[in-house]
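User: Design a sequence. Structure:
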């Protein structure tokens, strides 16, 4: 995409009869173009975030890029290459978050191999309980008393009193 933009700008500059310059990635088409100074880019990004009501650093974009690439199925070697890492371990240790959806998908693949549903083995989110129980304090105290009575051997197996 950057090559296409550069080609388009070179064409326009040629049509206008002006020198193209060297716009880098974040420069301008001016002949004296220089890349943004990192502090300028950071300041402008910080202002952008503040104006739009969210907190984020420019470096967070790198983390988001890497995490989304990995979550999207891009192999880690490719992501490491984009980030300039010499090995994939650094990429995984630094940028790859544990993705709960990826964990579910991995367990589903194992389940497919055994032709069974393994969702019951996974911890559920708190907002999605498998079932709910509600007892009064008196009912809970009664259950606890019954459990203690059984634990103390007060009940003969097979001869329980209702």
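Assistant: Done.
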């Amino acid at each position: 995409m950057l090559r296409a933009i550069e080609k388009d700008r070179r064409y326009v500059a040629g049509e206008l009869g002006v020198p193209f310059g060297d716009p880098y990635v974040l420069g301008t088409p001016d002949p004296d173009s220089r890349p943004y100074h990192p502090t300028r880019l950071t300041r402008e990004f910080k202002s952008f975030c503040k104006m739009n009501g969210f907190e984020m650093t420019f470096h967070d974009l790198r983390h988001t890029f890497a995490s989304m690439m990995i979550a999207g199925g891009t192999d880690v070697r490719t992501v490491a290459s984009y980030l300039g890492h010499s090995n994939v371990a650094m990429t995984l240790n630094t940028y790859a978050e544990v993705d709960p959806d990826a964990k579910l998908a991995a367990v589903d693949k194992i389940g497919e191999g055994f032709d069974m549903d393994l969702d019951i083995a996974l911890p559920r989110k708190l907002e999605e309980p498998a079932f709910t129980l509600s007892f009064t304090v008196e009912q809970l105290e009664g259950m606890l008393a019954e459990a203690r009575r059984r634990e103390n051997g007060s009940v003969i197996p097979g001869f329980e009193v209702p």
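The mean pLDDT is 75. Residues 138 and 144 are 10 Å apart (CA to CA).
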